[in-house]
Specification:
Radius of gyration: 38 Å
Shape: globular
Helix content: 40-55%
Number of helices: 43
Distance between the termini: 61 Å
Strand order of the largest sheet: 1-2
Number of strands: 6
Strand content: under 5%
Largest sheet: 2 strands, antiparallel
């Protein structure tokens, strides 16, 4: 029987023996004393004497090294234990191979590929022959304290008997055994660890939550689903492959960890046998090795990944229901806290609660009147009534829409170098409307994925499919239309899989997934749902077909009348063109283009019908030929006026890119390495085979896919959605890897809570407001979020939920908060994107001078951040930690760097908000304390403490003195921004209060949901 343990476990325990490196020096000069040390060791331990006396401890010197130092061979062939030789010169020491300088280092061997187990079968047979030869020698009794168990050194090694061994197998029995030379260290280590470490837990490891993550992180890269990169023809992600016999040995032998090559490899002390390989930079911890060993010894029971198991509603503990909270969420959380010996925090103050929940549900701070009303309401259910009022607010839909826009990669431009402007804001407004009307999440999904395929689809349902057309559009020169079209289809595929399944399907675009059971064929079968659209990949126009015309009946009638007025004007221009230019289109009658005032661009312009040209181009054409043909120029000018009226009308008529299926389905293929021009096998629309299949027997379409996502058999949609909503309110999901629920995902600490919320969400009819209300009315959400030393040490990220949520507000919410607190916020909803303040030159630099940013004026400057015009090539500079919206993004990025403070202290948005808020504070009272109280109530929903008031008022006095000495600085500060209001009679006082308000706007408490 083979036992393995690290050599390093022996060396510190050579009681009273000098380390070989401390005796004489490197090389053969110390071999004699090493022999003495061996003899001393044999005398020290009988078991070592019995085993070492018949073994060769020192490595045999390879023949190819003997030529370097002939005296080494003579010394090894005729050792003289007590003879001291002069140490070799240092230069000669360095010239020797390392195994000759250090006898404890094995001779160099040929490097073998990792885990080529079939290749090692010959080596395995050599071991068996070696055991047979040694059995011919007198057997050596095994010491009773070291009888083999499941694994040498395992805590249960002394209590678990080893399995019987067949006679004649060549392996020793449990009573009479011989040790391999390389396992001398294991015997001594077992003696040293016996005793105090024998009390291990008897609980069998859970495969899904403890074993599978270890295998996935450390083994699946080479022995997982990806067949093209699989080594040794071994799969550890499938039970039959992992447990199958392999020419005389087992990778995993249930119930016998000693005979399982997996356990031997992870405990090997040799680099060429160790798994994971040394060059993989992966190392298993002792705890992970122990888990794997106990799992194999307990029977190696297999299971599915936790998120792929059917969704059931866990039972809520009676203790949780009988608690003071009486809330299912609190029942699961407090049961978990009791298991980890943590106590829940007390409830937060009422002022903190109303600010927290108002920011979470509307993205805006509460007004002082709303705070006062809540503080005065001492009846039961006061907080629940606040939640209901906020859910009914129009601002709720705007707040919920922001996260969905980032998921849907919404933007107002196409991206890439040209970055042409598109019209997608009607879809954004539909999302806000859907959240406010509490459209059931299954219908919300179905409309966006397949609203156009519904019977008698309405305009609203067709508009919802613009979700799929939010992808970037390549308009660069040299583009390949088919390559772009494939990219658009695959973008839809990966966005859908991330948003509803929480799977990283994109990893299977070029090859089978490295970790999840998703093949490349599965990936392209899923993409086939979106491959039937007639989307064009040419990218020449900002709005590529198919499009939805959202014009009204009156607009369409007016356009028809405008076209009627254009017809005679166009006829007049055509008649003049025939008279003046009798040559073919694009060729002037005169031989000299200069004589007629033509240039190359004008010749091309004449080839187009006049009514199809824009007003600007017609005017340029008229001016270019004014001197050559006055009559023609006058006709073009009249046409220009009519076309300008038409262009204005067309600008008011909205067209949005939508989804539609082509009359003839386009075939889909697996693409070799993801290349558009290398199609392989044709595939039909389908879902990953490891998930429940589609119910429809007919050829599936997007409507079947949308219904499958919400089928009772699909375990992912509800879990993924609930986890994302939880992240909105707690800063991190119950599963931290919110974008990945595959095998590489984090195992949830609160698995029962996640499943209960998911099942409750499903059973409620996919009611989003019900889910939100369930989370925010729990005592877990209402906890105080102050961090104690104990929690800082044991749970700094609040994963156990022993305190309330506390994290930095997103930048868009910080801006909206400043506008709302100052009274500048304009609550107008919907419409095209607006242009707030932005430093000059940003667009120009990114577009090589072709685009110029012009900030809005008036109310458009103060609209909510949701309605800000979003250019993909360079996003709004007032926001930070926001994605570029080229791809689906479901996990927020939170940073805290000096650039943030530079923005919130100097951007005109915040400086203007501070000076306007200061003006309101000056009007609120005459005493500094009353004014300071007003500022704190508007921003923090509380009154300042005595210490805060003292510090701020002292700073106010310094600022006022400075501005009094420099009136021009005061006037410059008060002129920042577009808002003009009556200033106070004392500009220095107003400017000083503006600086105080700017300081409060930048407090950590203001920028944090605290």
């Amino acid at each position: 029987m083979v036992f393995r343990i690290q050599k390093s476990a022996l060396r510190p325990h050579l009681s009273g023996l000098a380390h070989p490196r401390q005796i004489l020096g490197p090389g053969p000069a110390r071999l004699g004393l090493l022999r003495e040390e061996q003899n001393s060791l044999l005398a020290h331990e009988p078991c070592q004497r019995a085993n070492l006396s018949s073994q060769r401890l020192l490595p045999r010197t390879p023949r190819r090294h003997l030529r370097h130092l002939p005296q080494i061979r003579r010394h090894q062939n005729h050792p003289k234990p007590r003879q001291r030789r002069r140490p070799l010169h240092r230069a000669r020491q360095r010239a020797l191979p390392r195994h000759l300088r250090d006898p404890l280092v094995r001779p160099p061997q040929r490097r073998r590929s990792p885990l080529r187990l079939d290749h090692h079968h010959h080596q395995h047979r050599q071991y068996r022959r070696r055991w047979r030869r040694r059995q011919q020698r007198p057997p050596i009794p095994w010491p009773a304290a070291l009888r083999p168990g499941p694994r040498l050194g395992h805590p249960r090694a002394q209590t678990t008997p080893s399995p019987p061994v067949k006679a004649g197998s060549g392996y020793p029995s449990s009573s009479r055994v011989r040790l391999r030379p390389s396992h001398v260290f294991a015997a001594l280590a077992a003696t040293l660890v016996a005793g105090g470490e024998a009390s291990a837990t008897d609980r069998d490891p859970d495969f899904s939550r403890e074993i599978l993550p270890i295998l996935s992180d450390n083994c699946f890269h080479c022995h997982g689903p990806d067949a093209s990169h699989r080594k040794a023809k071994l799969r550890l992600d499938e039970e039959p492959d992992a447990k199958a016999p392999r020419q005389g040995y087992f990778i995993i032998k249930p119930g016998d960890s000693a005979e399982s090559e997996l356990i031997n490899r992870i405990n090997s002390s040799f680099d060429d046998e160790l798994m994971p390989p040394a060059d993989s930079n992966k190392r298993l911890s002792p705890h992970q090795k122990d888990l794997l060993t106990r799992w194999v010894a307990s029977g190696a029971r297999w299971g599915r990944h936790w998120s792929f198991t059917p969704l059931t509603r866990p039972e809520v503990s009676s203790d949780g229901r009988s608690s003071t909270a009486g809330h299912p969420v609190d029942a699961f959380v407090r049961q978990h806290l009791a298991a980890v010996r943590l106590a829940p925090a007390a409830e937060a103050s009422r002022s903190a609660l109303i600010r927290r929940v108002t920011l979470d549900l509307t993205g805006l701070p509460p007004t002082p009147a709303e705070v006062a009303e809540f503080l005065a309401d001492r009846e039961a259910g006061a907080f629940e009534r606040v939640v209901d009022r906020l859910l009914a607010s129009p601002a709720y839909g705007e707040r919920m829409a922001w996260d969905w826009l980032e998921l849907a990669r919404y933007a107002d431009t196409n991206g890439y170098r040209g970055d042409l402007t598109r019209t997608m804001w009607p879809w954004r407004d539909w999302v806000v409307k859907a959240f406010n009307e509490n459209l059931a999440y299954d219908r919300f999904t179905l409309w966006q994925l397949a609203g156009d395929l519904l019977p008698h689809a309405t305009t609203e349902q067709i508009l919802a499919t613009a979700f799929l057309r939010n992808h970037a559009i390549n308009g660069e020169a040299g583009r390949i239309a088919e390559e772009n079209r494939i990219d658009y289809v695959l973008d839809m595929t990966e966005t859908t899989s991330t948003a509803w399944l929480g799977l990283t399907l994109g990893c299977a675009r070029c090859h089978d997934h490295k970790f999840d059971p998703v093949t490349q064929r599965d990936y392209y079968a899923f993409s086939a749902f979106f491959n039937r659209t007639p989307v064009d990949g040419s990218g020449g126009d900002p709005q590529t077909k198919p499009v939805l015309d959202l014009s009204t009946t009156a607009q369409r009638a007016e356009l028809a009348a405008c076209e009627d007025r254009l017809a005679p004007l166009q006829a007049a221009v055509d008649e003049l063109e025939l008279a003046v230019f009798p040559r073919p289109p694009g060729e002037p009658a005169s031989k000299s283009p200069a004589a007629l005032g033509f240039n190359g661009e004008i010749l091309g312009a004449l080839d187009k019908a006049a009514h199809t040209r824009s007003a600007e181009k017609l005017l340029a054409l008229a001016e270019a030929i004014e001197g050559a043909q006055p009559a023609y120029a006058a006709a073009v000018r009249r046409l220009h006026a009519a076309v300008a009226a038409r262009d204005k009308l067309l600008g008011a008529m909205v067209r949005v890119m939508i989804m539609a299926d082509a009359p003839k389905p386009r075939p889909a293929h697996v693409l070799d390495r993801g290349l558009y021009n290398r199609p392989l096998a044709e595939v039909a629309p389908g879902v990953p085979v490891f998930l429940p299949g589609l119910s429809s027997g007919a050829p599936a379409n997007r409507l079947d896919l949308a219904r499958w996502l919400f089928s009772a058999e699909n375990p992912l949609t509800a879990r993924v959605t609930v986890n994302r909503i939880w992240q909105m309110f707690f800063g991190v999901g119950l599963v931290k890897t919110v974008e990945d629920f595959g095998v590489q995902s984090e195992v949830p600490l609160h698995a029962d809570l996640l499943d209960w919320l998911a099942a409750d969400f499903r059973d409620s009819g996919w009611d989003m407001k019900h889910l939100v209300r369930t989370i925010v009315t729990s005592a877990t959400y209402r906890q105080d979020n102050r961090l104690t030393p104990e929690l800082l040490d044991r749970d700094p990220e609040n994963r156990h939920l022993a305190r309330g949520p506390r994290f930095r507000l997103p930048s868009w919410m910080i801006r909206d908060q400043a506008l709302a607190a100052s009274g500048l916020l304009v609550r107008t909803m919907g419409g095209p994107g607006v242009f707030p303040y932005q430093p000059p030159g940003i667009w120009e630099e990114s577009s090589f001078g072709k685009l110029h940013y012009q900030a809005d004026t008036g109310e458009s400057l103060y609209r909510r951040s949701l309605y800000t015009f979003w250019r993909r090539s360079v996003g709004p500079t007032v926001f930070f930690d926001t994605p570029a919206r080229f791809v689906c993004s479901v996990k927020p990025t939170r940073t805290n760097i000096p650039l943030h403070a530079l923005a919130t202290l100097n951007d005109p948005t915040y400086v203007e908000a501070a000076r306007v808020l200061a003006g309101h504070a000056l009007a609120a009272g005459t005493l500094p304390g009353d004014r300071l109280h007003f500022v704190f109530q508007r921003l923090l929903s509380r009154s300042p403490s005595a210490a805060e008031a003292s510090i701020l008022l002292a700073g106010l006095a310094r600022h006022e003195a400075a501005f009094a000495a420099s009136p021009e600085d005061a006037r410059a500060l008060l002129n920042v921004g577009d808002w003009r209001a009556a200033l106070s009679t004392d500009p220095a006082e107003h400017a000083a209060w503006a600086m105080l308000c700017l300081a409060v706007l930048n407090l950590d408490e203001t920028l944090t949901k605290s």
